[in-house]
């Protein structure tokens, strides 16, 4: 049985302790026979703990299991399909897993969105669990006793969560705006790439449907009616706040990376390395040298020393060297990092 990301995300932090305690109690009272399967054990535990659902109890039990060697991370194809917002999210999750030194294998699927329990990418398959999105995945890993922020105090953890919300709210919405609202980017980049893996007329219908969904979400958040200039202003403010927090440190909270560093790197690096008809978004980030240096440090430590491993556009090009060659070939304006 697979557990969706929403179940994991909404899990009571006490469920794991309850599940463990009641399994021990059941064993002590000989209520579990030796041939009783895992599902029956969890169902019995769920009944005793008054868990809301079997999913919650199973999630709590499985979160205590060691990290397996066959974890799979599912995402769209990088070279021809993935778009800026999804690429940023996928890179953030991969960076987090690498920072935690957890093994995983990337699996590319044209229908990764439809396979995901939340309809968003990336998602991971870890044993019997399916977990999607950055925060549910970090929570799931944390339940296994692995955390990048364990060394922080409560005030620092609150600050970290606030800045993570800032990244998702500002950079995430800006990426979706440029990808789906800005007409030039939509016609030249989004529409051809999003529909490239599907036959006609399905490619047009899926792109139209996705755009409608994203516009509805952005409207609810007050972003759909913004001008392009106001979007760039929001990004400028967000980068300024992140730059002030980072200052001259290697990472946002000292010498050790946290979940915030993984999230920021995923978004900043993707924006810097994705050519768009208008590269003002990348230019804005380049106006903050400490953020660019932060990206270089993490890339050098985790992704083979300045060789682009995950960028959907720049495969086979070195980031601060031959990247100019791609711009010349593509016809986009070159930016000098």
TrEMBL record:
<keyword id="KW-1000">Mitochondrion outer membrane</keyword>
<dbReference type="GO" id="GO:0001401">
    <property type="term" value="C:SAM complex"/>
</dbReference>
<dbReference type="InterPro" id="IPR033468">
    <property type="entry name" value="Metaxin_GST"/>
</dbReference>
<dbReference type="GO" id="GO:0015031">
    <property type="term" value="P:protein transport"/>
</dbReference>
<feature type="domain" description="Metaxin glutathione S-transferase">
    <location>
        <begin position="236"/>
        <end position="296"/>
    </location>
</feature>
<dbReference type="GO" id="GO:0007005">
    <property type="term" value="P:mitochondrion organization"/>
</dbReference>
<dbReference type="Pfam" id="PF17171">
    <property type="entry name" value="GST_C_6"/>
</dbReference>
<dbReference type="InterPro" id="IPR050931">
    <property type="entry name" value="Mito_Protein_Transport_Metaxin"/>
</dbReference>
<comment type="similarity">
    <text>Belongs to the metaxin family.</text>
</comment>
<keyword id="KW-0813">Transport</keyword>
<dbReference type="Pfam" id="PF10568">
    <property type="entry name" value="Tom37"/>
</dbReference>
<dbReference type="InterPro" id="IPR040079">
    <property type="entry name" value="Glutathione_S-Trfase"/>
</dbReference>
<protein>
    <submittedName>
        <fullName>Metaxin-2</fullName>
    </submittedName>
</protein>
<dbReference type="InterPro" id="IPR036282">
    <property type="entry name" value="Glutathione-S-Trfase_C_sf"/>
</dbReference>
<keyword id="KW-0653">Protein transport</keyword>
<keyword id="KW-0472">Membrane</keyword>
<dbReference type="InterPro" id="IPR019564">
    <property type="entry name" value="Sam37/metaxin_N"/>
</dbReference>
<keyword id="KW-0496">Mitochondrion</keyword>
<feature type="domain" description="Mitochondrial outer membrane transport complex Sam37/metaxin N-terminal">
    <location>
        <begin position="90"/>
        <end position="210"/>
    </location>
</feature>
């Amino acid at each position: 049985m697979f557990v969706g990301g929403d179940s994991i995300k909404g899990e009571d932090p006490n469920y794991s302790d309850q599940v463990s305690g009641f399994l021990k109690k059941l064993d002590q009272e000989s209520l579990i026979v030796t041939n009783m399967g895992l599902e029956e054990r969890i169902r019995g535990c769920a009944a005793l703990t008054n868990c809301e659902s079997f999913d919650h109890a199973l999630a709590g039990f499985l979160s205590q299991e060691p990290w397996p060697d066959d974890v799979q991370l599912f995402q769209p194809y990088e070279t021809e399909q993935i778009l800026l917002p999804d690429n940023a999210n996928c890179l953030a999750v991969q960076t987090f897993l690498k920072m935690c030194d957890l093994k995983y294998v990337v699996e590319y699927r044209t229908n990764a969105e439809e396979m995901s329990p939340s309809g968003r990418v990336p998602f991971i398959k870890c044993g019997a669990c399916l977990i999607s999105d950055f925060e549910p995945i970090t929570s799931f890993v944390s339940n296994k006793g692995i955390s990048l922020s364990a060394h922080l105090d409560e005030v620092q953890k609150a600050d970290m969560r606030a800045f993570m919300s800032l990244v998702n709210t500002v950079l995430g919405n800006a990426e979706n705006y440029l990808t789906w609202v800005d007409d030039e980017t939509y016609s030249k980049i989004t529409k051809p790439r999003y529909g490239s893996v599907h036959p006609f007329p399905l490619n047009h219908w899926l792109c139209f449907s996705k755009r409608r969904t994203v516009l509805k979400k952005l409207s609810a958040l007050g972003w759909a009616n913004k001008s392009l200039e106001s979007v760039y202003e929001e990004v400028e403010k967000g980068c300024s706040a992140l730059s002030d927090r980072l200052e001259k440190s290697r990472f946002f909270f000292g010498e050790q990376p946290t979940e915030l560093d993984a999230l920021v790197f995923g978004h900043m690096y993707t924006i810097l390395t994705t050519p768009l008809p208008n590269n003002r978004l990348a230019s804005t980030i380049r106006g903050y040298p400490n953020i660019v240096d932060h990206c270089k440090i993490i890339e050098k430590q985790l992704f083979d020393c300045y060789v682009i491993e995950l960028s959907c556009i720049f495969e086979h090009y070195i980031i601060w060297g031959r990247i100019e060659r791609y711009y010349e070939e593509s016809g986009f304006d070159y930016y000098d990092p």
